[in-house]
Design brief:
single chain; alpha/beta; 4 helices
Length: 151
């Protein structure tokens, strides 16, 4: 799995031009799933994100986690995180897991994030056309790759 985490002061997702879901301070998590991912990968990545200390404490140091701050998470599936643009002008997405497996692992990740103690977890809609509005805070943006973290 690959996750792009953006610390936000707020964010929303509009789905197919109609539905909107909002969060306050926390993370927007763009999540990509590949064929080698499994439930354990989702569990490990969700736990890592929940306790990652990238929120400022009283002295302005990055010492607090999403759990410490009571922050929210907006999780948006994003198969393009597994794009391979090494050849030609059109990226290949063959490394991205196919539905329904990718949807199942995306949903499992979301549940694991809630199970890890994140109080407010919102989602986009798997496979939908979405407009994500991000109020990046910092900016703090991290890229986590489970292959590098848990191998």
């Amino acid at each position: 799995m690959r996750a792009v985490l953006q610390r936000v002061s707020g964010a929303s997702v509009t789905i197919d031009g109609a539905q909107s879901r909002f969060i306050g301070p926390g993370f927007v998590i763009l999540l990509g799933v590949t064929d080698t991912d499994d439930e354990k990968t989702a569990e490990q990545l969700a736990q890592k994100i929940a306790v990652l200390r990238v929120f400022p404490d009283g002295q302005g140091k990055l010492n607090l986690s999403l759990l410490d701050t009571g922050g929210a998470a907006l999780v948006v599936s994003n198969f393009t995180l597994y794009a391979d643009a090494r050849k030609g002008r059109r990226p290949s997405f063959v490394k991205a897991a196919r539905p329904p497996r990718s949807d199942m692992l995306y949903q499992h990740f979301v549940q694991c994030l809630a199970d890890a103690g994140v109080q407010d977890v919102k989602t986009g809609e798997f496979g939908a056309d979405m407009l994500v509005n991000i109020q990046n805070d910092g900016p703090v943006t991290l890229i986590l790759d489970s292959e590098e973290l848990f191998s």
